[in-house]
Amino acid sequence: MGGNIVSRFAFMPPNPPGYDRSDPDIFFLESGGTEIGVLQANRGHCVPAGTPAEDGFVVLFSHGNAEDIGINKERTEEMSAALDCTVVAYDYAGYGPFVGTVRPTEARAYENVTTALEYIRETLGVPHERVVVIGRSLGTGATCEIAMRNSDLAGVILISPLRSAIRTQELRWSPSMIDIFVNESKMAKIESPVRIIHGDQDEVVPFSHGVRLNELAKLPFPMVIVEGGHHNDLEWMMGETFYGVMSEFIHALPALNESRAAALPTSDSSSSSEAVSRFSSSSI
Asked: What sign does the CA torsion over 205, 208, 212, 217 have?
């Protein structure tokens, strides 16, 4: 019951939605007894369902709250172009044309990200070892869950991640029985390398959340601290560097995962010996 109350505040699908069933770039998949919208972009362009993925890594992107894949279409294309790869983005149940007909919940979000991963594996034929999962804000909940369940994923990128939904309110106590997206309980169980990007002036998800998750990660890649960065301006502040730090991480993954498979230390595989990488607008 309590979790349902938290979900009502955590999920705020755009209404009106950013797309409808007539959108030629978005296709629909069955997920947990309902349908969700899915978008695939190959190197900067939306493509029909089932279009073969580009060589190399494939990104599975989980978006933040108060947005959907229609609103994020340009971002998805931009990400696929900047990272020179295929990006698959999906909506949570109750988003897009399903606003008001299905109630989004934490459990459904986990079903939805699983559906998207299954599409990548079964329809596109891409193994987990070539999949990088990226989550932003609320989407880091689904990203951490799928990464915890699948230890063979190539890598994890968390943008403005939350320790848990309730902890974003900076309460002195956290009623765990009604909390959702408790990422801090999952980080130590994620076997894949992790890179975190967070603005140190984030007013929605406190910067301390990203710091704590980075401390808990088993295989952290230098955390990117965006000095002066808020919750929704990191792309604008960082410019090309926003995707540059993701690309840097993705290019390091073969060496990081080779070391992981051999059970060897990975610290020397990082591009930096520092635990964090700081970015400020003066870095441009």
From this structure: positive
